[in-house]
UniProtKB/TrEMBL annotation:
SUPFAM superfamilies per the UniProt record, alphabetical: P-loop containing nucleoside triphosphate hydrolases (SSF52540)
Species the sequence originates in: Deinococcus detaillensis
TM spans (from-to): none
Stated name of the protein: Cell division ATP-binding protein FtsE
Protein family: Belongs to the ABC transporter superfamily.
Gene Ontology molecular functions: ATP binding; ATP hydrolysis activity; transmembrane transporter activity
Gene Ontology biological process terms, A to Z: cell division
Gene: ftsE
Length: 227
C-alpha cells in the first residue's frame, strides 16, 4: 500500500534533511505505528504520502503507483482515496455527527441515494450510531474524534492516515479511539498512526516504525516504543 524507495526529503531554504534515505514497505491491510521525537520526521513522512511534498531523492509509491507520476487531477483523486485524521478533529460545529460525516461524501463520486447507508455504516464502525443527531458540542472529545474517523472512512479509502489522533484525549478516550482504529483496520483498511502515546503503542501492539533525525532506525514487527 505504501512503498518508500531510498527516499530523502530536504526542505529548501533551511536545507533541513527531514527524511534520510528511508526504505520501507507497508502491505495492504497492515496496522502500523510511526513514532519518533518531535522533529524526527513523522509529519514529513505523512506529507510525502499525500503528496504535499515531493521527495528530494527516491520514490514514494501508494497503491503501487509512483506519486511523481500523479499530476493535477490525479493528485486530488489520490487524496480522496486516503482518509485522514488529525489531533484536532475540525468538525463543523453547526452540523450533527451524521451531517459532518455526510459532508465528506460531497467531494466523492458516491451517489446521493447511497449516502445514508454509507454514513450509517461509518458511524456504526466507530460505535456512534446512537449519537448521529448530536452536535459536536454535545459529544465528548473522544466521541468527536470518533466522528472524525467516521468522516475519514465514509468514502471507503484503502488507506487511513492518523496524525496524533489521541493527542488531545485522556487515557480512556485514547483507548476507545485506538480500538476504533483497529476496527477500521479489521474491515480491510490499511492504517498508519503517527503518535507519541507510548502506553497505547505498548498496549495495543502492532508493527512500529521509529524515526530518529529523519532516519528509519527501527522497524519492529511486534511493536515496542524505544525512541
Ligand atoms: P515530526 O513530525 O516528527 O515532529 P517533522 O517532519 O515536522 O517532524 O520535521 C522534521 C524536520 O524538518 C524538523 O527538523 C523540522 O524543523 C523540519 N521541517 C518541517 N517542516 C519544515 C518546512 N516546511 N520547512 C523547513 N523545515 C521543516
Ligand atoms: P456492510 O455490512 O455492507 O459492510 P455497513 O453498514 O457496515 O455495511 O457499512 C456501510 C458503508 O459504511 C460501507 O459501504 C462503507 O462505505 C462505510 N464503512 C463502514 N465502515 C467502514 C470502514 N471501516 N472503512 C470504510 N468504510 C466503511
Amino acid at each position: 500500500m505504501i512503498e518508500f524507495r531510498s527516499v530523502s526529503l530536504e526542505y529548501p531554504v533551511t536545507r533541513t534533511l527531514a527524511l534520510d534515505d528511508v526504505h520501507l514497505f507497508v502491505g495492504k491491510g497492515e496496522f502500523v505505528y510511526l513514532v519518533g521525537q518531535s522533529g524526527a520526521g513523522k509529519s514529513s513522512f505523512m506529507n510525502l504520502i499525500i503528496k504535499r511534498h515531493l521527495p528530494t531523492r527516491g520514490e514514494v509509491l501508494v497503491a503501487g503507483e509512483a506519486l511523481n507520476r500523479y499530476k493535477g487531477g490525479r493528485t486530488s483523486t489520490l487524496r480522496r482515496r486516503i482518509g485522514m485524521v488529525f489531533q484536532d478533529n475540525l468538525l463543523l460545529p453547526h452540523l450533527s455527527a451524521q451531517d459532518n460525516v455526510a459532508f465528506a461524501l460531497r467531494v466523492t463520486g458516491v451517489p446521493r441515494r447511497e449516502w445514508a447507508t454509507r454514513v450509517g455504516g461509518a458511524l456504526r464502525t466507530v460505535g456512534l450510531e446512537h449519537k448521529k443527531h448530536a452536535l459536536p458540542v454535545q459529544l465528548s472529545q473522544g466521541e468527536q474524534q470518533r466522528v472524525a474517523i467516521a468522516r475519514a472512512i465514509v468514502g471507503d479509502p484503502p488507506l487511513l492516515l492518523a496524525d496524533e489522533p489521541t493527542g488531545n484525549l485522556d487515557p480512556d478516550n485514547s483507548r476507545e479511539v485506538l480500538k476504533v482504529l483497529q476496527n477500521v483496520n479489521l474491515r480491510g483498511t490499511t492504517v498508519l498512526v503517527a503518535t507519541h502515546a507510548r502506553d497505547l503503542v505498548e498496549t495495543f501492539r502492532h508493527r512500529t516504525l521509529t524515526l530518529r533525525r529523519g532516519k528509519l532506525v527501527r522497524d519492529d514487527p511486534y511493536g515496542g516504543y524505544a525512541l
